[in-house]
Amino acid sequence: MNSRIAILAGVALALAGCTTAVIASNPLQARWNGKTAGSFFAAYGPPISDTAGMGGTTLYKWRGGFAKGKSCTVELTVNEAYRINTIRAVADRVDPKGGPTHCEKVLDAAS
Question: Global pTM?
Answer without folding.
Answer: 0.76
